[in-house]
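pipeline/complex-builder :: batch 7 item 3
reading input block
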Amino acid sequence: MAMEKPIPAFYCCYLLRSKSRKSFYIGSTPNPARRLGQHNGSSKGGAKRTSLQTNRPWEMTCIVAGFPSKYAALQFEWAWQNTHATRHIDRDVRDARVDELQKKTKAAPSRRRRPPMSLEARLKNLHYLLGGVRSFSRWPLHVRFFAPDIFTTWERHTAKMAPKLRTSITVQLTPADLPAPVANPSTGDTTTFEIPDVIQAIPVAYEDCKSHVEKARSLVGEQRPRCCGVCSARLNLSTGLALVCPVATCQSTYHMHCLSNRFLAEEGSQDALIPIEGTCPSCHTPLKWSTLMKELSLRTRGQKEIEAMFKPKRRRKADTIPESDATEPQELGEEDEDLDETWMEDVDDGEAVAAT
Amino acid sequence: MAGATYDIVVLSSSPDSHHVAPRALSPASPLERRVAMPSSPLRSRSPLSGPRRATAGASRTGSRAAPVPIGVERGFATARSLLADININDRGLSAIEEALESRRAPTGPENTIKASKPPRKRATKAAATGEDAAKPRAKPKPRGRKPKTTGAEQATGDASHAEVVTTTTSSYFAKLPAAPPEPKPTKPRKPRTKKATTDDGEIQTTIKEARVTKPRGATKVTKKAREKAAEVASAHFRSRGAADDAAGLYQQDTTVAGGQSAQIGDDSIWDVPMSPSARCNGPPKQRPPDPSYPLDLDEAVNRRRDWTPPPETEQQEILTSSIGKENKPLPEKESFTSLLSGYSYAQVDARSEQPASKSTPTEVTGAVKRRRVELLDLPNHQVVSRQASPEKGKAPKKKPRTITDLVTGQYAPQQPPPDSPEVTSTFFTRRATAVTKATKMPLNDVADEDSTKASKKPVRKRSTSKPAPEHGEVKGKSKKASAKAAAKPKLVAEKLLSPASALVRLNRQDVLFGTSSQLAREESPTMVREIQKAIRESEQDAELRHSLASDDVPAFGAWSRLQRIEGRRALWKASSRDDEGHTLERQNVYLPEPDRAQDFPLLIEKMPEKSDDSFLDIDDFAPPQAPIPISSDLPTPPRTVANDKVVAAVDRSANSSPYLDIDDFLQRPPAPEDGSRVPAEENVISSSPFRDIDDFPRHLPLSNQPVSSSFHDINDFIPSAQPPATGSLPALASTGSPKKRRGRPPKSQSAIPPRIPVSAPVRVPEKPNTHAQPSTATSPSTPRKSQSRFHSIEAILDSEDDEALSPTPPRARRLGYSPPLPLVLDTAPAPAKDTTNHIVPIHCIPEAKLTFDGIRPTLFPALTFLIRSLPPTTDASNPSWHEKILMYDAIVVEDFTAFLNTHDHVRTYKRATQKQVKAWNKDLKAKGKEEMKVVEGEGMVLAVEKEIEAYMVQKWCEEMSVCCVFRERKNGGARKGLY
């Protein structure tokens, strides 16, 4: 298992909607733009379920981003696809929800059978997974909507749902155009579709944490003795698991344990293990735990990724994409296989099968 | 070959034209030729013309300068052919020579002119002429061949006999040239040659003129012809008509010779055959020196064009050159096959050239050709070339590189058969001796090993030495054989073996079967053979001994020795297996055991005096099975150091005061544990097996609860199971710690006899090594029993209580359970520390806690606390579980569970069994405490601790929002667990 990889720069689950707006597909990917291109046939590797030309272009209506690992994303994806069967929800609750969502009781509820899911049900499931399932409750997730109509649907149907989303889960609407058909100059047909700029602009590489990584590197390079900003005990940046405040002006460093406890105390969730967010004890900047962890994992496990991040400084713009490609393709390859193989067996109906 | 093809083609295509042509042809050289040139394009079959050209060129050069014109008319006229023909025909023999020379070094006006003309033209012209010549020839050939052959035979007996093709070709060439010259004299050769020379002035002049004009005309004509076929045709006829006039003489001559109705064609044909012989005889003499050089070049060019394979042309050139000059190393380099082909070509060339020039040279060339092959071998140049050309030397080396070659190669030349049998025989004999000398097994073993080693070593040396010389020989042979001629005849001879001899050879062959890895190893085939033999023999012996069951010890000794020796080479692993299908490797450890077996008799002998009835009983009881078990045990002996030590101890005991040692040994491992926990009596007995079983479950946190559950059952049953072990080792142990044990053993013994068959499975769990062999009751001889000896002592002790509780039933269960047990035991070997031995601490807990839901409220905080309390790591690359969780790592549930179970804080509970409770209460009593009792219905339960399970950990992870994952592919498609 690839436990030794750093936290991926980006991993998301997404909900696709077909051209007819009647079919949906839930998948996960570290690179939505590329993946959307695959679904729409402009590049190889799209899921079989999205290969029907009449369903194209698929529209990426929303994404759930921020998964701290591929496994996390896959679990969430499966749970979203199979909310009626996921282990992350207690069975009775599950069944109750299924009945509720389907609004009609089925005589023979075979667990294997996935109930047909309306858009509304999918959105509710998403909401429930984000807000009511403990397994995902402390993951650093965010939701982004690209389809305004779906966002309104989401708001309408989830506003009254019992477990509200915790405030740290941001829900965002960034309208994106429908994938516009691209007339192939040579053939004239419109089998390929443009990928909306909004989706293409999703930062898929480690760009956003580059400054953080640089700062940590420089601190480590200083080699001067440091102490934990929480416990004031000594701290070894190079050997131990020390955290560095991402704020450029803040020179504070922390023990992982100390800061996690501090954050948890701040949150008031003493029973939890993983903090979600907190403020830097030194500079009082609100910090996300995931930000710190991503930098830490890059520092401790991501030599390759860091090298890739800093190597091609010349053509920065062009490099961002290849960079992500460089680190992700392997992951992608794996997932695609895994998901398609194992999930096809369990899913009978015409619903989308996750294929990343 | 080429000649034949030509003939056929000509026949099909152009007979009429030829026939017509010849009439006009011969006399008017320039006109004819000119005319002929245009005609050729009509006929144009460039490919056909190509080959003809070559032959034609050669022939023309040889024989007839004058007749050429005839041929010209007949032949297909392509640009090439025209040029070639012009060169050859116009000049005649001398002209050809001159032309050749001129190419090299222009001489004479003609030559100069021609030389001045681009070589291409010449060549094309020559080819055209050749075509022309070939066409007439070709037509006549089928008919003419016979006469040709006759002529050839007459002129050149050897050459004609040797190679039909060559003869044909030569005949062609001879004919072609011959046809033109014939007209003048009935005596073809000399006159023609003479004529050629003499006539050269006349004819050649004309020819020259014609030629000179021809090329021009030819080129023009060809162009015209291509553009306007009709005109060409008319031109042909005109030329023919003109030629007819001039050729009247020739025709007459030909008619005289042939006398056929179809004067032209037939005459020409007839003439052709007739002429070649005479011509062949005549011309070559004069020309041989000159034509060889020039001809080579022309022919080479033509060949290259006509004959598809370029390399052959090279060879031909070389050969021709070599013929003239044996200098060139190239032929040597070439493979034999290439040589053969090259020779054929060379002959053709030579004939084409020489025969055309003169018949005698063709003969000579034929002989020369044959000789040449041989000559090539002999001459210095060749040798040098051979040496110089390392390729050949390398080639033989390369061959053996493949595995099969290596293997077979080793066999072919050498094998020392005597060695192997000797070795084996020595082995077995020594084994027997060793067997007899049971007490001194180790020494024997050593000796055996040495002997075997010694025997083997020489073999190896031989084998190694042999292959080397083989290679050397091969190399030498190859070098020697590099003389192509010599090598070829040898090969042929080998191939020609009579069927009988071939069969003999086949029978001789020793095919060694083995795995590729075996065969590929450096070991000589003889070694492999020997090993295989040894294996068979040893197996047979083993079988015999098993069946006999009496003299097991010796057999085992043999086994062990053989295996040791050969096992080092690891061949055994691949190929050898026991009768039972077990790998032989086990046997390696085995040596000590024979000692034990040997010890037995000693013990019996010595002990009976001291030993109690029980002891005797044991022996009696054991003996029938004992021999077998010993044998079986020996092969499977535990590899562990402990076992070796045991063995050593046993050996010591046998020699000196074995009992004490044995006891010590037995006691030692348990000693630390026993001292504290087990009562004095039990201490001695409580050594190995029991503890292992009991201890393992507890000590092994990782083991899943199902295992533990089974474990408990096992504990309950164990006592009964243990007795069987008493048979062998227990006796020893009892002897070691004489009196106290004696008291117990009798009980165990009494129980033992029925249990013995059952005992096997029980023993299995005790020693991990034995687990591999699942064999249960089928063959009592299974090794486990021997192992059981040690363990049995404890069993006896325990059995006292347990037996009373559960007499027989446990056996069956144990058998069933036995397989899982070994696994557990394997993981946690001897060290088992049963502080409480069988006593598992019993807790009085609320019944609700037995369920996961019930214990969850307490378990999860405990887990959380445990995780939080983990000290931070100092190694960033190896974070603690807490840190992993903080870093959002996906937690592998199995690993995490295993880790958690190493901590005592985290436990779940499982209802205690009656036995456990009893044991616990007993222990409490011993400590002066109250017994634990639970009243049913109060919600309290007596329970034992149980390890935490993966699903609990998973639930905890979900609760804590930790991403957890089951290890991939655990259950095949269990990937789903991820999600």
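note: Chain A has two domains: 12-204+328-346, 208-308.
queue -> next item
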